[in-house]
Specification:
Helix content of chain B: 25-40%
Strand content of chain B: 35-45%
Distance between the termini of chain B: 35 Å
Shape of chain A: globular
Helix content of chain A: 10-25%
Shape of chain B: globular
Mean pLDDT of chain B: 95
Largest interface: A-B, 16 and 27 residues
Oligomer: heterodimer
Order of helices and strands of chain A: EHEHEEE
Radius of gyration of chain A: 12 Å
Number of helices of chain B: 3
Number of strands of chain B: 8
Strand order of the largest sheet of chain A: 2-1-5-3-4
Low-confidence stretches of chain B: none
Order of helices and strands of chain B: EHEEEHEEHEE
């Protein structure tokens, strides 16, 4: 069974209630988000970028076992 | 993928005025410098629906932020004729009135230092994965949004 580790940042943690989770058996980022939307009600209404292995991706991206994916809501540093 | 070590910009808590003074002092022996430009971001006690912000608590995806900061640093050095560049950003809690961002650029002439400093500040706000949580005096909070 393959799994990806998902890191959740900033205000998105309010929706997920956690800053890290595992998602199993997903081939790409679209499948992962679909699974997460079912796990965390309200997530589908949130705006965020996705980083796969510390690289921000704009299109659906393949995932391998043990990849780290991060969900990045709008930034507010400085 | 080999882990590359990027220069750390993050400091825990506020950036102290004495730390800033020390950094200025450290440039006194660099005699080719003709101008410095410094930006200091300070936590503002915003009044939001009659509640006052007492502090901001910063978190970041540090690994990604440091990679992106390294790219910004490199691009800024190739665009402007700078002698040096120093950047510090707070993580954790910074009280209203305290410094949370310190950008310091130096050049032989003022224009490069001023323009580079401004561009770095704008890019930090827009591109670095950092989140600020505004804490109110009654222990409630809201997530900050950059304009």
């Amino acid at each position: 069974m393959m799994k990806v580790n998902v890191l959740i940042f900033g205000p998105l943690k309010e929706v997920t209630g956690t800053n890290v989770c595992e998602v199993n058996d997903v081939r790409d980022t679209n499948e992962m988000i679909m699974k997460m939307n079912a796990m965390f009600p309200g997530l589908d209404k949130k705006k965020f970028l996705i980083a796969v292995e510390k690289e921000i991706v704009q299109v659906n991206t393949s995932l391998n076992d043990n990849f780290t994916v991060a969900l990045l809501p709008p930034y507010s540093g400085g | 993928m080999p882990a590359t070590k990027h220069k750390n910009i993050f400091v825990v808590g506020a950036i102290s005025p004495s730390f800033i003074a020390e950094k200025i002092q450290a440039h006194q022996d660099k005699l080719n410098i003709g101008g410095h430009s410094i930006f200091l971001g300070q936590v503002r006690a915003d009044d939001i629906e009659n509640k006052i912000v007492t502090a901001i608590e910063y978190t970041s995806y540090e690994e990604l932020a440091l990679e992106q900061m390294a790219a910004i640093r490199e691009e800024t050095f190739s665009k402007y004729d700078l002698t040096c560049m120093h950047i510090y950003h707070s993580l954790g809690k910074v009280k209203a009135g305290e410094i949370c961002l310190f950008v310091f650029t130096s050049s032989s002439h003022r224009k490069a230092a001023i323009d580079a400093c401004e561009e770095i500040v704008e890019r930090i706000k827009k591109e670095l994965p950092v989140w600020g949580k505004e804490l109110f005096e009654d222990d409630t909070y809201q997530w900050k949004e950059n304009n």
